[in-house]
Amino acid sequence: MFEIILLLVKVVFTLVIYLFIFGVIRLIYLDIKSMSISKTDNVGFYPYLKLINQREMLDFKVEENYTLRKSVIIGRNDKNDIVIKDPFISGIHAYIMAEGESVRIKDMGSKNGTFVNGVRLNEGEIIPLKDGDNIKIGHVKFLFVSIGK
Amino acid sequence: MDENRKIIQVLIAICSLFFIIVGYLTYIQLFRSRDFMANTYNRRQYKIEENTSRGNIYDRNGVLLAYSKLEGEEQERIYPYGALYSQVIGYSSKVYGKSQIEAAYNNELLGIDDLSQVFGMVSGSNYPTRKGNNLYLTIDHKLQALGGELLNGRKGAVVAMDPKTGEILALVSSPNFDPGAKKLEENWQSMVESEDAPFLCRAAQGLYAPGSTFKILITAAAIENGMENEVFEDNGSIIIDEREIRNSESKAYGKIDLKKALALSSNVVYAHLGTELGMGSFMDITNRTGFEKEIPFDIPMSKSRFPYESMDKTDLAEAAIGQGKVLVTPLHMAMITSGVANGGIMMEPVLVKSIAHAEGKSNKELKADKLGRIMESDVAEKIRVMMQEVVASGTGHNAAIKGISVAGKTGTAENELSVKKKAKEHSWFVGFAPAEDPKIAVAVIVEYGGSGSEAAVPIAKRIMSQYLSQ
Amino acid sequence: MLGAITYRRPLNLIAAFNIIGYLFLFFSDEPYNWMTLAVGGAATFIICSACLIIIKRNHGDEYLILIVSMLLSVGLMMIYRLDERLGLKQLVWIAVGLGLFFAFYHIYIKVDKWDRFAYVYIALSAVLYLVTLVLGRNINGAVNWIVIGGFSFQPSELCKILFVFFLASYFKNPDNLFLEKYIQDKRLRVLLNKVLLMLVAYCNIGFLVLQRELGTALLLFLTFLLVLYVFSKDLKLFLLNSAFIVPGVIFGYFMFYHLRVRVDAWLNPWADITNKGYQIAQSLFAIASGGFFGTGIGMGRPDMVPAVSTDFIFSAICEEMGIFGGVAVVLLCMLFTYRGIKIVLGLKDRFKKILGLGIVTMIGLQTFIIIGGVIKLIPLTGITLPFVSYGGSSLITSFIALGILQAISNPKFDRAGGEANG
Predict the structure, then answer these.
(1) Residue B291 is assigned to a structural domain of this protein
(2) CB pair distance less than 8 Å for B127 and A2
(3) Which Pfam families does the UniProt entry name for this protein (chain B) (predicted)?
(4) Is the residue at B273 inside a domain?
(5) Domain range summary for chain C, segments of one domain joined by +
(6) Residue among A77, A125, A76 nearest A105 (CA)
(7) What confidence tens digit (pLDDT) does each residue in C225-283 have?
(8) Which of B50, B324, B329, C194 counts the highest number of beta carbons within 10 A?
(9) What residue in B sits closest to A10 (Cα-Cα)?
(10) Contact C344 B124 (CB under 8 A)
(11) Which range among A17-31, A104-118, B414-428, C84-98 has the greatest average pLDDT?
(12) CA-to-CA distance for C69 and C63, rounded, in angstroms?
């Protein structure tokens, strides 16, 4: 009996360490995935979001640029394409649809709203973005830059 | 960006180093850990032993041969039959370590199996007491006791085995010693220094000239070379390259065939046969029957010797009658006899029949493998008939048992004392019974016992008749 | 909710690891030792709050501290199980180390002009070495400790970091560090710089060998080679220094008896098992007895291995947590190296890049050298397993290095700089 309990504890113990390793690897993987969106190599070929805030003023991780190669979801959840850990951003906050040159934005029912040029989007409302638009999500402000700029 | 490429190379290099560590660790665990665990300098072993009640050892019918008794904090190993099994089971002493079965099956007796090794369940010192596994030997206690009784203090060995399964039924060696821990400690020094070598398991490790028992192999070689029906002229002595070889008591048998020559154990005929057959046949038959080879066995066993680089005529003649540089162990001789009895197939000898788990879980049965064919079945059959003739009308007639056909061969082996006429020769007998459907094969040697029929034959007869009457 | 207890929150798993481990230790030994629970609780609290601060305050990369926390937990649990008194001390060292970790994180960011102090690094190392030679105490055959007021300290540990700082200052603007004002001829200056660089490097290594710190010497040499390989444009210089390995090893083998003993013990520890091969044989016995899952914490006999809480802690981990535990430690170190290099790759500032690479490779190689040594893969050299082994000097140095790495990893303070940028 003692040996069985001991074995059980040992296996659980080992499992915990490996779950931990797996968990860290997963987080790093998600991190790298989101980093590939923020790469600046392709600026000019794709529309992108440019951070207006000073990064030093934000106490969470935000990149300077997010390239919009394809449609992306912005939110706090790790599974989103653009993950921003701002407490004022909802789990799934906004959806940016990019189809070639036309880029539109949609609020996904966020708590604190998505603002384009200071105007809050209604839930479900889809608005096309044009060059120079200001987008505010939680504390974060982006400038939208379209192709050809 | 060139630098970043180089940084990635550095990363790959360091990660490979780590993978090498992981690989090496796995290698240690899979392939080396058993050796490390068994190393005598590994003090963890003693800790395991303190926490384990060592398993019992029984004979094939469940007679208890060894067990452990807890005396205060210390465990004591008890051997109810004292010296009788000292060279089979051996001893288990804190001071002097372990020998024979106690050593070879240490892990099983301590209940350390591969699974508990994998799960690391054995090295702990804080474990509650655990129980080891029990062993069942192939030994038949009645035969073993009878063997010990018949040797009656004379130096020698008695081996009995089942020719079809390779199971060892009796493995008696004399002299022997008391394996109890206290006796061992008292007598250790004198036993180590003793000329009688009481620690030597003569049955498996004693090397003797086979004498005329070796003629069985020469007969096989002769039959294989088509000399089965040849008739030989025996004048009682033969001179080969200035070396005279004589029959026992210099008897002349006249014109005799191979069968008769074996029955009468004619040295003249076999010395002649040896020179006829030549070195190639000798090498061939000794190679097939396992001379100069390690034979797998549960306890240490010596290699039988046939150490010729080249053979002149004298060597051939001497080897043919089992003298010269040929040396065998009694166990090997019993195996060769079993091979003849078993239609030419020699079995691997086994000493442990099964391992019984302490908690009464399934028993693990151990089965012997075939070692290989030592001769064609028709050759074996012809030799069997000839060996029957040895007992029916030849030198082995004292081995005859009423109502049972016995096959056998006597042997009289010269030794360093007999050459100087200071002592008698070693007395050999090998045989099996019943001849048509062999159930037991025996090999008996009595050191300085004289001719085969004098000392060895009566012992073999009693062993065989005892086993067959059970 | 389930996510909170599975792999999604690695921090919870660290807490779970500690709780299971210490509870098991507590219940498996009667009479119950309440100190086990106290130490367990304190360890869990200290380690987890350090992680939380880094994550919540967004002080740069969060994975480094997570990985290190797991290593700390494994090490502390093992040390406490081996010797309660040492365990308590180690807990204090961890607390102090974490404090220094945050301190150096902030100091590094505040000071910012680290690349201008190259001469200071050299001078400081020299002073430390000389002090050690004069005041050094012989502990376990190595003259590398100074004892001040009952506190023993190993200055060579600090020299490792100073050396990396020096390398970073040198390679920020390769071959231009020394004699800038005195020698006008550029080619001559570059040549002299290279000579001086090698002089400094080999003086460092030489002092370490004198103090019989073979492991640290080897570590410094390998780090030097790697930095040279990556950041020096002069491939010949790298090859020249690599070529020093062979004569260096032969020279050392015949010059130093203790080196010969180590090599002999590595080649065949069984030949002289009671003497030269004793340590390594005991270590292998411990590793072999663990099986795949180990004997369980507190169930094995790692106390039979000499120096088990420092150099041979990995053997104890293998015995009680099994090969799986040992492999987990190796994987954690690998993950640490990977994450560190990943940070280095993303840096724009050349000084930081060199500094980061130096620190990461140093910690990674140190792990390899000591683990490889205790499993008889390479000759044993006595150094500690970073963040796992017992030892104040080693722990504090590792934490300072980690603090600097953490500061470097914060992208908010990364600015382009240095000669070979872009």
Answers:
(1) yes
(2) yes
(3) PBP_dimer_2 (PF21922), Transpeptidase (PF00905)
(4) yes
(5) 113-255
(6) A125
(7) 999 999 888 888 889 888 888 888 888 888 878 788 888 889 888 888 878 888 899 99
(8) B329
(9) B119
(10) no
(11) C84-98
(12) 10
